[in-house]
Design a protein that fits this description.
The chain is an alpha+beta fold. The protein folds into 2 domains: 106 residues, Rieske Iron-sulfur Protein (3-layer Sandwich), CATH 2.102.10.10; 259 residues, Naphthalene 1,2-dioxygenase Alpha Subunit, Chain A, domain 1 (Alpha-Beta Complex). It contains 12 helices and 24 strands. The chain has a 9-stranded antiparallel sheet with strand order 14-20-19-18-17-16-15-24-23. Strands 6-5-4-7 form a 4-stranded antiparallel sheet, with no helix packed on it. The protein has a 3-stranded antiparallel sheet with strand order 1-2-22. Strand 17 and strand 18 form a beta hairpin. The longest helix is centred in the last third of the chain and has 15 residues. The radius of gyration is 23 Å and the shape is globular. The two termini are 29 Å apart.
Length: 442
């Protein structure tokens, strides 16, 4: 019986592959995956240290010498655009004493100077100057890359979304993204200019729960009927969202058929939720101007296909979720085993009417900010789950919904019924492969 499996809690260095394998069963995951600090440290090394991680959007470093500070797992890094307009992801670490060089979240800087001893680097990360250079032995070659701010082994982008991997080995970005690329296309194609930008600010908050809870939730379609019941009016109707939006919850007297919407999953743990019903379509002169600009670029038939979205929430494992109709992305950054930072970025549709983009930002503030009507429900659930899993009353987290009923899907993955938990099962399959086998797993 699975319930009789005994897993000894151990420090990071003592977690063996056999013990890690025991944490993941076909229909469940052991609570230690969420609460054990040693498991978390291994995740930073083996999951976030090997997978492709979203680091930023090209629009956030639009001009030469622009930079954005972020992390890859526990490693502080900078996304930069150098003087030659080339993108880099470099470790935010001085080659001299290891000090974090840049403390600003973003900006424009031709040079980065370490505050400790003044070692100075170009926006590409290469070493530019050293104070008291003559004091060092003459045989040290400071042109050697080891004395630069080191570059992350692999960097690539898709439709302006920049990803990086701390591992020099593993699948390329196109292979890694596989079918979830269509979700990014779905988002970017809504922009009349064919590009999006991140110029609407950011809403950032910390959740007192493990990072995987946010990712688990990203492919959980039917929790809305319960977790978000507080957003219903007395007739059982949810507030209307920007852009028409989905009607997540039917009237109290009519149960919504979540199964019909489906969930879709892909290799490497990506997936998306099918589209809930749309209660109303946008109207008015602003929306009509937007549609006209899309038709001018794509024609009427293609515009109709672009606006007829077939998905709700998409997840690029392990740290990015987003909504095309909701015009935002959510970046999940692990801090500790029970602390996660979440950043919500509005997505500006380049070429769309400014009022439409600004209205989207206001809608996001009402639905997905730290004090919103929707996200607060999820945060409460995540934190309750973390507290519950910290006790040993029940050792397992179940993901058994619709076991084995998923079928091949047109985009190369699989599709299951709306309440299926098979995408989470895919995620933990690949989580285990990272933890035990490495970046080149299939």
């Amino acid at each position: 019986m699975l319930s009789t499996i005994q897993i000894q809690r151990r420090p990071q260095t003592l977690w063996t592959d056999d013990q890690l394998h025991a944490l993941v069963q076909p229909d469940r995951v052991h609570r230690y995956a969420y609460v054990d600090p040693g498991v978390f440290e291994l995740e930073m090394e083996r999951v976030f240290g090997q997978a492709w991680i979203f680091v930023g959007h090209e629009s956030q470093v639009a001009q030469p010498n622009d930079f954005l500070a972020t992390t890859l797992g526990s490693a502080p890094v900078l996304l930069t655009r150098d003087e030659d307009n080339q993108l880099h992801v470099i470790f935010n670490r001085c080659a001299h004493r290891g000090v974090e060089v840049c403390s600003a979240a973003s900006g424009n800087a031709r040079l980065f100077r370490c505050p400790y001893h003044g070692w100075t680097y170009r926006s590409s990360g290469t070493l530019a100057a050293i104070p008291q250079r003559k004091s060092y032995p003459p045989d040290i070659d400071f042109d050697d890359p080891q004395w630069s701010m080191r570059r992350v082994p692999r960097v690539d982008s898709y439709r302006g979304f920049v990803f990086a991997s701390l591992s020099a080995e593993g699948p390329d970005l196109a292979t890694y993204l596989n079918g979830i690329k269509h979700s990014l296309d779905d988002l970017v194609d809504r922009a009349p200019d064919g590009t999006v930008s991140f110029r609407g600010g950011v809403s950032r908050y910390t959740v007192r729960a493990n990072w995987k809870m946010q990712i688990d939730n990203g492919v959980d379609l039917h929790h809305a009927s319960y977790a978000h019941a507080s957003t219903l009016d007395e007739d059982g109707r949810q507030f209307s969202r920007h852009g028409g939006g989905p009607r997540l919850l039917e009237g109290k007297r009519r149960a919504i058929d979540w199964e019909a919407f489906g969930v879709v999953g892909f290799d490497f743990g990506h997936g998306y939720q099918g589209r809930p019903p749309v209660e109303t379509l946008p109207s008015g002169p602003v929306y009509e101007a937007y549609v006209a600009s899309l038709e001018a670029k794509h024609g009427k038939a293609q515009t109709e296909a672009i606006l007829k979205y077939d998905r709700f929430n998409s997840v690029i494992y392990p740290s990015l979720t987003f909504q095309a109709f909701g015009q935002h992305i959510r970046v999940v950054r692990p801090i500790a085993v029970d602390r996660t930072e979440v950043s919500i970025y509005p997505v500006w549709l380049d070429g769309a009417p400014e009022k439409m983009n600004r209205d989207a930002i206001r809608s996001i503030a009402a639905t997905h900010s730290a004090a919103s009507l929707i996200q607060t429900d999820d945060v409460e659930i995540f934190e309750r789950a973390q507290r519950g899993l910290s006790t040993g009353t029940n050792e397992w987290v179940m993901f058994a919904g619709h076991m084995g009923t998923e079928e091949p899907w047109k985009e190369g993955g699989w599709r299951g019924l709306g309440t299926s938990e098979f995408v989470s099962r895919i995620q933990y399959k690949h989580w285990l492969a990272y933890m035990c086998e490495g970046a080149g797993h299939e």
